[in-house]
């Protein structure tokens, strides 16, 4: 399970590099920070239950953040 966190870190790094190449600096910095966090957590060798619990927490926070941003921060499309 720890290896999957390192894989998540790798893909966050790839997405961050593509965003940086596309001149989306804030988006790229967000994914660089996530990549560092995932790789760091991947080397801590927690139990599988801990990794799954952390991933559920990450998903809840990201979905709440995405919903907040898309409802309250983005302008209406019309």
UniProtKB/TrEMBL annotation:
Protein name, as recorded: DUF2626 domain-containing protein
Sorted keywords for this record are: Membrane, Transmembrane, Transmembrane helix
Query: Membrane spanning segments where?
Result: 31-46, 53-72
Keyword Transmembrane listed? yes
- Organism equals Paenibacillus nanensis
Extract the InterPro entries matched here: DUF2626
